[in-house]
Amino acid sequence: MTKTTEAIYEQGVLRLLEPMSLVDGTRVEVIIISSTPTPESNNPADILAAIAAMPLGEGVDFSGRDHDQVLYGQQGAR
């Protein structure tokens, strides 16, 4: 299951803003994206590190060789 929701960090605990249909003890993976900018979040190196840490999408492998086909479909392919 993949679900996006908002939470508030209070006293060391993330409190979800909407209920989840999870069984107690279920392990989940959490990706933190703060909606409150911090001074250090404007540093280009930090921004690039955050982008690099994002999970890669699953699906078709892509290379520059496939550029036209991905953008334009079979007609654009050489």
Characterize this entry briefly:
The protein contains 2 helices and 2 strands; from the N terminus they run ββαα. With 78 residues, the protein is α+β, with helices and mostly antiparallel strands.
Q: What share of the residues does DSSP label as strand, in percent?
A: 5-15%
Name the structural class: alpha+beta
Q: Number of DSSP helices?
A: 2
Helix content: 10-25%
Shape: flat
- Give the termini separation: 39 Å
Number of strands: 2
The strand order across the widest sheet is 1-2
Major pleated sheet: 2 strands, antiparallel
Average residue pLDDT:
79
Order of helices and strands: EEHH
Give descriptors for this structure:
78 residues; alpha+beta; two-stranded antiparallel sheet; 2 helices; 2 strands; 21% helix; 10% strand
How would you describe this structure to a colleague?
- The chain has helices at 44-53, 67-72; strands at residues 7-10, 13-16.
- Helices cover 21% and strands 10% of the residues.
- The radius of gyration is 19 Å and the shape is flat.
- 0% of the residues are buried.
- It contains two helices and two strands.
- Strands 1-2 form a two-stranded antiparallel sheet.
- It is of the alpha+beta class.
